[in-house]
Design brief:
alpha+beta; Alpha-Beta Plaits; four-stranded antiparallel sheet; 4 strands; globular
């Protein structure tokens, strides 16, 4: 399964930023060892249901340690029997764009 999720603390730093709290969540994801990538809006993770959801919970907990309230947006592509989709889905589209 692939998930894309975004976590944001309700409390920002003095400049209105959330980067420090988000960095804590990204550290958790990267330490999980699951295939992942982070972009400007979401972190994508690939794995089995239980392991992916455990990473999301741990990432939320990391942000919650910095803020009394946390927002989570999550989108999932549940496709049993398929792996390597984190890159394969993008490659298929890119291949269609190449002349």
């Amino acid at each position: 399964m692939l998930i894309a999720f975004s976590i944001a603390p309700a409390v920002s730093d003095e400049d209105g930023g959330v980067a420090e709290a988000v960095a804590e969540a990204v550290r958790v994801v990267r330490a999980s060892g699951l295939p992942c990538e982070t972009n400007a809006m979401f972190t994508n993770v690939e794995g089995e249901w239980d392991e992916v959801m455990a990473v999301v919970k741990a990432a939320v907990d990391a942000v919650a340690a910095r803020s009394p309230r946390v927002s989570l947006v999550l989108k999932a592509d549940i496709r049993p029997g398929h792996t390597g989709m984190l890159r394969a889905k993008v490659t298929r589209v890119e291949d269609l764009l190449d002349p």
